[in-house]
Amino acid sequence: MRDKRNVRRGNPEAWAMKLFWSSRSPFARKVVMVAHETGLHDRVALIPLPIPSPVPCVELHRANPIAKLPTLIADDGTAIADSPVICEYLDHLGGGSLFPVPGPARWRALGRQALADGLMDQLLLWRAELRRAEACRSATLLATFAGRLDASLDRLEEQAAGGACGAGFDIGDLTVGVMLAYLDFRFAERGWRDGRPALAKFQDSFAARPSAIATAFAEN
């Protein structure tokens, strides 16, 4: 039996879609998880790129002028950028299980997605600030990041305790799970589980999903 994972990464021309990604990017992992959840992962060639990339990728720049990861090239050649857009496209292609139909459930799911996406943006900025020389770091900015993270995690704990987070499994739950996994990957010292038992239980369930196991974060 062929190793589909290796073929998928090694021979892009044999696959219908291409995804420019990094195994360190939470937004890229989110998209690849959706591909697994919708059963489309065997149709997507993963084109790994380092972050930052020392040499510009001509094909990525041609598809997406800002060269942002992740970027998907659909089977008709259309370039699709921004992880929420790519996720909804793949979900539609795969039968529509992660994005609820218009109504209260959809707005709740999209709200959780937006909160988790916003936190992932903050975490990337936070990490960039921490990589600066200590004398150049902004204590005010670091305190702002920490405060926003704690407040947002407390909000998610309330939602998880009330049954709103993880009641089914939608795009909001998936994005929250990826964000928490990124916290474990890059900010393990934060100990986010302390005092948040419902959210920790949700994350244990998320981490056991086959799609989460198949897409674990890794250094390039």
TrEMBL record:
> Does Ribonucleoprotein show up as a keyword for this record?
no
**Pfam families in UniProt:** GST_C_2, GST_N_2
- Where is the organism placed in the taxonomic lineage, from the top? Bacteria, Pseudomonadati, Pseudomonadota, Alphaproteobacteria, Sphingomonadales
- Designated name of the protein: Glutathione S-transferase family protein
Gene3D superfamilies from the UniProt entry: 1.20.1050.10, Glutaredoxin
Quote one Gene Ontology molecular function term: transferase activity
Which organism encodes this protein?
Sphingobium indicum
Query: Ranges for the GST N-terminal domain?
Result: 15-98
Presence of the UniProt keyword Transferase in the record: yes
Keywords annotated in UniProt: Transferase
